[in-house]
Design a protein that fits this description.
With 333 residues, the protein is of the alpha/beta class. The chain contains 12 helices and 13 strands. The protein is globular and about 60 Å long. The structure holds zinc ion.
Length: 333
């Protein structure tokens, strides 16, 4: 592919140090959603700015930056409300432009609104922090969106459905927001259960469907959870979420829903709130970045595997086979 260059005066070009493969990338890998021929893939990256357009005034060449999963101008009405994913001038790599993050070089539109320096002086953080910085590009902000939208706070009993990278980050977020008790609904994958516990889950339930709901009820005196963070997006996980939440509680969803139908009458009778949606991760970066820098959270632990860019096909295979939780693509390897 030709090297990306500055096209619009608000663009920057980033030399990608590390990118990631997302669970949502697997939808097109499996042929369940279509990708435009010639478009590239990947929407999570960190790296160094090597060029900027004439109208880029904040971000400078040499800055080491986090690239959140959509670009946004940071100044329109939607951005002002914190909904950077609805930016009037926003877009998504591999869709509005062919360039995308699983590459050596990346064009970033709306660079001033989109890019965030990892450190105030633009320098590169310690090696140990790089995976967590990469997690801030998507999965950590997405898990945080689930917990924050649902109203998790001190005293909450919170259930997280899903042991993928977003579910694991939702556990971190629930803890960060002060939940009193976090219950993870996970697969039988022992490594994922162990990670969930070490990131802050007090209990891990591996039962599914009605059995999972019974197990949550048993942990909450029959009432159900204050919040359920639905981090999968399937019909089964949604129906578990709605059955496991207490009357008056909140279900938030951040997994892309596939084939989910919701019966509003059920929600009406129990005063259940549904919230969530696509996470405005750019908006959350100023809140989450200090937590990483101060070592209060370590979302980089979701990266179980590290492969070079030339091995990206193997990264997809491992994630598709659920052998890897999430793969970091190291462009220098
Ligand atoms: Zn905007």
């Amino acid at each position: 592919m030709p090297d990306p260059v500055v096209v619009d005066p608000t663009d920057a070009v980033v030399r990608v140090e590390a990118a990631a493969v997302c669970g949502s990338d697997l939808w097109s890998y499996r042929g369940q959603s279509t990708a435009k021929p010639g478009s590239r893939i990947g929407h999570e990256a960190v790296g160094t700015v090597i060029a900027t357009g004439d109208e880029v005034t904040d971000i400078a060449v040499g800055d080491w930056v986090i690239v959140p999963f959509r670009w946004s101008d940071g100044v329109c009405a939607a951005c002002a409300r914190g909904l950077t994913t609805s930016c009037e001038h926003g877009g998504f790599w591999g869709r509005e432009i062919t360039e995308a993050c699983q590459a050596e070089l990346l064009r970033v539109p709306q660079a001033d609104g989109t890019l965030v320096r990892a450190l105030p002086d633009g320098s590169r953080p310690d090696d140990a922090l790089v995976p967590s910085m990469l997690a801030l590009a998507d999965v950590m902000g997405t898990g945080y969106h689930a917990a924050l939208s649902a109203g998790v706070g001190p005293g909450s009993t919170t259930v997280v459905i899903g042991d993928g990278a977003v579910g694991q980050c939702a556990i971190i977020a629930a803890r960060l927001l002060g939940a009193a008790r976090v219950v993870a609904l996970a697969s039988t994958h022992a490594d994922r259960q162990a990670l969930a516990r070490s990131l802050g889950a007090d209990e891990v339930i591996t039962a599914r469907g009605d059995d999972a709901v019974v197990a949550v009820a048993a942990l909450t005196d029959g009432a159900g959870a204050d919040q359920v963070l639905e981090c999968v997006g399937t019909a089964q996980s949604f129906s578990t979420a709605l059955a496991a939440v207490r009357s008056g509680g909140t279900v938030s969803y951040v997994g892309i829903p596939h084939g989910v139908q919701i019966d509003l009458a059920t929600l009406f009778a129990r005063n259940v709130t549904i919230t969530g949606g696509v996470a405005p991760v750019r908006h959350y970066l100023p809140a989450l970045l200090p937590a990483v820098l101060e070592r209060r959270i370590d979302p980089g632990r979701v990266f179980t595997d590290r492969l070079g860019l030339s091995e990206v096909a193997e990264a997809y295979r491992r994630m598709d086979a659920r052998e890897a939780l999430k793969v970091l693509i190291d462009t220098s390897a």
